[in-house]
Specification:
The complex is a heterodimer. Chain A is of the alpha/beta class. Chain A is 26% helix and 16% strand. In chain A, the strands form two sheets. Chain A has an eight-stranded mixed sheet, with helices on both faces. Chain A has a three-stranded antiparallel sheet with strand order 8-9-10. Chain A is globular and about 95 Å long. Chain B is globular. Classes of the chains: A alpha/beta, B alpha/beta.
Chain lengths: 397, 618
């Protein structure tokens, strides 16, 4: 069953109330002083998000940003929405509880490569497979910034850092590959400094109902400066970037030297002349994730052939919607819950005849809701007049 | 009358016990039960580690524990006999499934010969009944396999017991028809086995006596039998209704708490959302996320899960949001004894977080008390905007007792008022919302939920500026906030029932103080002590943090305070630290509840020592 069949086609924020009128970026700026290092890529992302949010046209009070720990996780403080700066790695789980219990909210998660992929890796993959209605912005700077420069789970092998003076040993995660492996329904990549592309990806991500994962290459100018410079510099970027667009041929390079991707005889992706007729056409809506996954793997260690854009954007039932539907179904089947009936479920029996000396009887606990201390009531010693108590047969269930 | 049913973990002893309990409850006896089973789902058949048992204590008067020593042991195989015989007093009845007592089976678990025949049990009244073969014979005309027929032997045994104790059988027959509705042959086999067992009792001369235990006198009203985990689940549903907040449970399966997740997942018609999380941390953080959105957030777990949730509970302390953490304690540390009871998580609940992170703690005293305690946890959590620990344990969780159904019309009004308007004015005179502005009486902060226009704000784990809730690294502010959070929790003492003492003569020199599931054994022990002509006072704590305001005063009124605990003296440590009272600990951590007679002896000895000391002192 698809979401379409179950609920009609819904967009990401169809259940979120819309604003009364047009909004401005200024309305989304909080009064808090922004405290990232001067020159940090986070500033550009913040400005892009603040400028983009009015476009959604949602009531500002129904927008929530949840973050974990790290430089990027300060993000919610700077937005005039509801927000929570939580604990390391747990933002997807917190956002899950919030989103599934409040379908009227637009819930965003802001996280980093350490927060999402190291300490919080488990929550990320489970949010993706469940397809919670969340937009996850993963700022990837390939370094730990807040703790002052240790290598991260996306750092390249051999990275020299404070904790790896002879070079890091661990093989890095590719966040896009990881997300696709976790059955994510929307996966995209963009770059902090390319406002236009970043905004377009945000737009696509927020149109998608379910979990949208957006990896944002973000520059840490203090501990990992220019990590993505080849993707940004005008002289190199066209050679290094593969701009994915749904329905368009997958090509890169300059007009003079246009290259493309096609399938080799073995089925793997292969670089070819960009004007060849068998150049692949990007299909982000393909249910089969194999092309999206193959695209996530073509990048070379020097970042040449780095695809950006939407890798995958498919529909699958959304956990929040399914849970709400189960609750509705339960009410439709048996009516709204009746507490008295619930408590009296199972085998019950009734003691009909009050004892003569009721005060001296054992007091079964909890007959008052907020009962104070239990009492070892000495008066409640064995009373041998059992005959007076009639025990009826179990009531019908 | 105390009956213990014991067999392989695949023999259906828990089901048999549950059914006998239902029949007994329906008959009107007071009762208390103690299931005891291995952590392995199916340990190797016929071995000592695989033995599962169910003990039921029922009587014509009110009782407080599942009983110390069984009057009757039903042993389905030699291992069940060997594992339980040490608890059975001489002269008690033993009903053994003779079919399983082959020489090989007996020798496998260390008996030299067949104990039913070689005189090992000469001090007991032994009835060797070929339960398996009689069951198979009774089912020979029913279309079930021999294996299925053999599996019905527990129902044969139940039928026999039902005859012995004059239990009403209708509910069990209905239950079997319902349970096996989809497989009529199996339903018929079980019903037939049950009847065959009953008739066997009636016609055979093996059992000379059919016992009669009359109904116990009870307050008029409608009763049901209820286990702690079920009562706790119902209490949470009731708390949702009382607070007007939707219930959200974030939980990861763990023994012995999983039944609460199972139960609450059935109650979607009450708007209950249950989320089986990817791990313990996600369970609590999802609950906290839901609480941020205005739900009644709950997470259920046992000790190892609490260890994993600690950081998130600290976040809850910082965010000052309502959150209920249910810890159904089990034997620890580490994986410990998953299916055995213990109350050794008190200090973990009290102190197990980084920084100064006070969390209120409540503990139910009996299985049915779990209902009221869940409501109390919700009351404190919502009124004071704080995480609250509810410490149940394996004994309460799986044990059961009759419960007088509460009148839902009398449910307390715990409705929460969310902030909807600005509560402060900024420097320019503009209205603004300060999320950390506190109620003067409770010190609870203002709680505005997403969707409330004009009150947009950010919360987080970084220290908050008093009032505004902005990030603050100011030393004086941190000192103030740490003290405010502590004062808020300490202030709850003004809002809970005082500690009451049961001291009938008013002349006792010794007070026995308990908390949690030791209520039953301590109460029963006090009765035994008084029956010996000694004077003893009893008090039981439902609130462990903060303690009731009069606790110190109550304890100081006695020459000696004795604290029995299923840990190495955790409450005693707190009492000594907080009140400078030289409390005496009596501790045991064998995975089982205290026996009343054992506690009675300890109490009597303490009374004797107190008398000697006070004479010397004078």
């Amino acid at each position: 069953m698809t979401t379409d069949q179950a609920f009609g086609h819904r967009h990401s924020f169809d259940l979120v109330p819309v604003a009364d009128g047009p909004q401005t970026a200024k309305e989304y700026k909080s009064d808090q002083e922004v405290r990232w290092c001067p020159g940090c890529g986070d500033y550009a992302i913040l400005a892009a998000v603040q400028a983009f949010l009015p476009e959604l046209g949602l009531r500002r009070e129904n927008v929530v940003f949840v973050s974990g720990i790290g430089c990027s996780s300060r993000f919610p403080y700077y937005l005039e929405t509801y927000g929570m700066h939580s604990i390391h790695g747990r933002a997807p789980a917190i956002a899950t509880g919030l989103a599934v219990s409040r379908p009227d909210l637009a819930v965003f998660v802001v996280t980093g490569d350490g927060d999402a992929l190291s300490i919080g890796g488990n929550h990320l993959i489970h949010a993706l497979r469940r397809n919670i209605n969340l937009t996850i912005l993963l700022f990837n700077n390939r370094i730990y910034g807040l703790t002052k420069g240790q290598y991260s789970p996306t750092s390249e092998v051999g990275k020299i850092t404070k904790s790896t003076p002879m070079g890091s040993l661990d093989f890095p995660f590719n966040p896009v590959s990881l997300a696709l492996g976790a059955e994510a329904t929307f996966v995209a990549r963009t770059i902090d400094s390319d406002r236009k592309h970043l905004t377009a990806v945000l737009r696509a991500a927020t149109e998608h109902r379910g979990t949208s994962l957006v990896e944002i290459y973000q520059n840490c100018n203090i501990f990992n400066d220019d990590a993505f410079e080849v993707l940004k510099a005008p002289e190199t970027r066209d050679d290094f970037l593969i701009r994915l667009e749904h329905g368009k041929p997958i090509t890169f390079g300059t007009e003079a030297d246009l290259r493309g991707l096609h399938r080799s005889a073995s089925g793997s992706l292969e670089v070819c002349d960009g004007n060849e007729p068998d150049v692949l056409v990007h299909d982000a809506h393909d249910d089969d994730p194999s092309l999206a996954f193959a695209l996530s793997r073509v990048t070379r260690p020097n970042l040449s052939m780095t695809p950006i854009g939407v890798f995958r954007d498919v529909q699958r039932p959304v956990y929040d919607d399914l849970m709400t539907a189960q609750l509705d179904q339960a009410v439709a089947k048996n009516g709204a819950g009746d507490l008295a009936a619930l408590l009296a479920g199972g085998d019950t029996w009734t003691v009909t005849q009050p004892q003569a000396d009721e005060a001296a009887l054992p007091q079964p606990q909890a007959d008052e809701a907020a009962l104070p201390q239990p009492q070892a009531d000495e008066a409640a010693l064995p009373q041998p007049q059992a005959d007076e108590t009639s025990a009826a047969p179990p009531a019908a269930n | 009358m105390i009956i213990r049913l014991a067999g392989d973990s695949g023999d259906g002893m828990q089901l048999t016990g549950d059914r006998f309990t239902s029949e007994t409850a329906a008959f009107g006896n007071d009762l208390s039960t103690l299931p005891n089973f291995p952590a392995e789902i199916r340990a190797p058949a016929g071995t000592l580690p695989g033995v599962s048992s169910f003990q039921l204590h029922f009587a014509d008067h009110d009782i407080m524990t599942p009983g110390d020593a069984p009057n009757v042991l039903v042993a389905m195989n030699p291992a069940a006999l060997k594992a339980n015989i040490a608890d059975v007093p001489l002269g008690a009845d033993i009903i053994a499934n003779a079919d399983e007592f082959t020489l090989r089976a007996c020798q496998r678990i260390g008996y030299a010969g067949n104990p039913l025949e070689d005189g090992t049990l000469r001090e007991y009244r032994v009835s060797a009944v070929p339960l398996t073969s009689m069951t198979v014979e009774a089912l020979k005309d029913i279309d079930v396999s021999k294996k299925e027929a053999e599996r019905a032997k527990n129902m044969f045994a139940l039928g026999l017991l039902s005859w012995m104790y004059n239990r009403p059988t209708e509910s069990t027959l209905e239950f079997l028809e319902r349970k096996f509705a989809k497989t009529p042959a199996v339903a018929k086999a079980n019903v037939t086995a049950f009847r065959a067992g009953y008739n066997f009792g009636e016609t055979t001369e093996t059992f000379s006596v059919s016992y009669e235990v009359k109904p116990a006198p009870m307050k008029a009203g409608t009763y049901r039998n209820i286990s702690g985990n079920l009562a706790l689940s119902y209490g949470l549903v009731a708390a949702s209704k009382a607070t007007g907040l939707s219930l959200f449970l974030g939980s990861y399966p763990i023994t012995p708490a999983s039944d609460i997740l199972h139960e609450l997942s059935k109650h979607k018609a009450f708007g209950v959302r249950t989320f089986q999380a990817e791990d313990e941390i996600a369970g609590v953080t999802a609950a906290l996320g839901a609480a941020f959105g205005g739900s009644l957030g709950v997470t259920t777990t046992s000790g190892p899960g609490v260890a994993l949730k600690s950081e998130a509970i600290g976040l809850g302390v910082m965010l000052e949001l309502p959150l209920i953490i249910v810890d159904v304690q089990r034997g620890g540390p580490s994986t410990g004894l998953p299916t055995k009871t213990e109350q050794a998580d008190l200090l973990q609940a009290m102190f197990g977080r980084n920084g100064e992170a006070p969390v209120p703690i409540v503990a139910p005293s009996t299985p049915s008390d779990c209902y009221a305690t869940a409501l109390e946890a919700a009351r404190i959590a919502t009124k004071y905007r704080t995480p609250v620990f509810l410490l149940s344990d394996g004994y309460l969780a799986n044990g059961s007792e009759p419960w007088l159904l509460p009148d839902v019309e009398l449910l307390p009004d715990l409705r929460v008022t969310f902030a909807t308007e600005p509560n402060h004015v900024d420097a320019k005179g503009e209205p603004e919302f300060w999320p950390y502005l506190r109620d003067e009486e409770t010190l609870a902060r203002a709680w505005a939920i997403p969707g409330t226009p004009g009150l947009e704000h950010r919360v987080g784990g970084l220290e908050k500026a008093d009032g505004s809730g902005d990030i603050s690294y100011d030393p004086a502010n941190h000192d103030l906030m740490v003290r405010l959070r502590q004062a808020k929790v300490d202030g709850i003492a003004r809002d809970i029932a005082p500690l009451t003492v049961d001291d009938p003569s008013g002349e006792a020199d010794v007070l026995v103080l308990g908390w949690g599931s030791t209520y039953g054994p301590i109460g029963a022990a006090c009765r035994q002590v008084r029956a010996r002509g000694l004077k003893i006072a009893q008090a039981h704590l439902r609130h462990l943090n903060p303690f009731p305001a009069n606790t110190g005063e109550v304890l100081r009124a006695y020459d000696r305070v004795l604290i029995p605990e299923m840990n190495l003296g955790q409450l005693a440590l707190l009492i000594r630290a907080k009140f400078l009272i030289d409390a005496v600990s009596y501790d045991k951590v064998n995975g089982m509840p205290f026996k009343a007679v054992e506690l009675a002896d300890v109490i009597a000895a303490t009374i004797g020592e107190a008398a000697t000391t006070s004479v010397v002192g004078k």
